[in-house]
Amino acid sequence: MKKLYLQTYGCQMNQYDSERIAQILGRMDYERTEHIETADLILLNTCSVRDKAEQKVYSALGRWKELKDRREGVIIGVGGCVAQQEGVNLLRRMPHVDLVFGTHNIQKLPQMLEQVRRSQSRPVEIAFYRDPSYMDDPEGRTRVEGAKAFVTIMQGCNKVCSFCIVPHVRGREVSRPSAKILVEIEALARQGVKEVMLLGQNVNSYGKTSPGELSFAELLGRVNDVAGLQRIRFTTSHPQDLSPELIEAFATLNKLCEHLHLPVQSGSDSVLTRMRRGYTRDEYLTRIDRLRQRCPDVALSTDIIVGFPGETDAEFADTLEMLRQLEYDEIFSFMYSPRTQTVSAKIYDDDVVDEIKKDRLQEVLRLQKEISLKRNRQGIGNVEEVLVDGRSRLKNGQVMGRTRTNRIVNLTGEETLVGSLLPVRIIGATANSLIGEVITAERVSDFQSEGEMA
Q: Which has the minimum average pLDDT: 36-50, 130-144, 355-369?
């Protein structure tokens, strides 16, 4: 077996793509290794959503040059969003890189590797495709390890927000046929998968560019009927596409987890306009209010950008007020950085100085830490259904899992519990996670009678 070292930066879509890469190359007798020094093939699956992520790519590639110089025959390749964005420029900047493949071209890796070996050429594949079959496994196989799995249902985005590189590196929206998606999920369920995460850059616009296809809410309904499956999640959503139909799905589909990641980016109408987000603050709040009316226990997470061009103190204050008003369970916050090809980089000066950006980011993080701690403490005493993911990062002898509302729970237990759905009583909380104890079936009945089962 040849050795494959595969490093991944970025979102769940990149993680899913890396799983596909490993599966495809496994059929070519490549075995994954965690030791880069022993690898015959080194691949980096990249993210370019923010400048920091892109710079990490070049830093890693720079370190790997010395390794390639020491070991004859090592092949180095770059895939993902930076590869899509830079194409042949990556080869010019990094002469030791052997191949570059974009976000639509994972299935071409076997042929590209053969080109490198036979002709010592340096292939670049960065074409976009409108036929969604590029997202399918070339051999139609579905293999997974563990109780959770990602399933891509669409790629690309048609929104063209002024700050966002995604349409340039993932292309326009393309939805996979629902029939193929359901076959894949049914196969996963037969292999013991309990939870699927449906993936797309704007997942709740699924089917809109495919005449006659199911809507996203209808697709969720079909997935909900898959025998053996117990949990459904999805990411990422755009507020414009949080339809009444989708809101109703949270109220009626028993397998759809009570968690929604809905990026707001800013709480200021004027900033949202410059961002070209397509909604106002009030429109966003109205959608959240309707969702909470139909699904009161829903947990919310969001993305926040601070220091967008022209952001004033008053506009930033609107974002802080948004956080106080909605009390998100979790946020992902970032300092604005201009991205090549985006509208904001072309028409706006990056005029908020770094020190102000850093101060605003810290203020957002401090406020959210208070909110997250408050909301997590509200769950102490409840019994939650937890799907155990793996070993805890905090303490030996503990495992960790997630509630239906996507909260991390650490609890004492052996790794044999991984993959199990367990009733867990919450006995403590921090801003980042919960502390729980597994309870017996008899004790679950006691808590249910007391009305504490979440």
A: 130-144
Structure tokens given for 133: 């079959």
Confidence check: pLDDT of 304 > 60: yes
Alpha helices by DSSP H, 211-353: 216-224, 244-252, 269-275, 281-294, 313-326, 343-347
Separation between Cα atoms, residue 233 and residue 9, nearest integer Å = 21
For residue 443, pLDDT over 60 is answered with no
Tokens of 350: 């990056």
Q: What is the number of H-type helices and E-type strands within the chain?
A: 15, 19
pTM of the model: 0.92
Give 140's pLDDT tier (boundaries 50, 70, 90).
Answer: low
Q: How confident is the model at residue 394, as a pLDDT? A: 80
CA distance to 84, 249, 299, 333, 405, per residue, from 260 (Å): 29, 12, 6, 16, 9
Please answer whether residues 249 and 215 qualify as being in contact, where contact means their C-beta atoms are separated by less than 8 angstroms.
no
Q: Write the secondary structure of 28-90 as one string of H (helix), E (strand) and C (coil).
A: CCEEECCCHHHCCEEEEEECCCCHHHHHHHHHHHHHHHHHHHHCCCCEEEEEHHHHHHHCHHH
pLDDT in tens, 341-362: 999 999 999 999 999 999 999 9
Q: Return the residue matching tokens 């890469």.
A: 21
Task: Specify the 3-state DSSP secondary structure of 283.
Answer: helix
d(CA 415, CA 425): 19
Nearest to 158 by CA among 200, 99, 125, 120: 200
Cα–Cα distance measured from residue 257 to residue 227, given in angstroms and rounded to the nearest whole number: 16
Percent over 70 (pLDDT), the chain: 96
Residue 390 bridge partners (DSSP): 400
Are 392 and 415 within 8 A, CB to CB?
no
DSSP character at residue 124 = E
146 exposed, middle or buried (CB, 10 Å; 0-12, 13-18, 19+)? Answer: middle
* CA angle, 328 then 406 then 454, to 5°: 95
pLDDT of residue 451: 47
Strands 30-32 and 41-46: unpaired
Measure Cα distances from 351 to 309, 311, 355, 364, 401 in Å.
6, 9, 12, 20, 42
DSSP code per residue over 196-228: EEEE-TTGGGTTTTSTTPPPHHHHHHHHHT-TT
Categorize the per-residue pLDDT at 49 as very low, low, confident or very high, splitting at 50, 70 and 90: confident
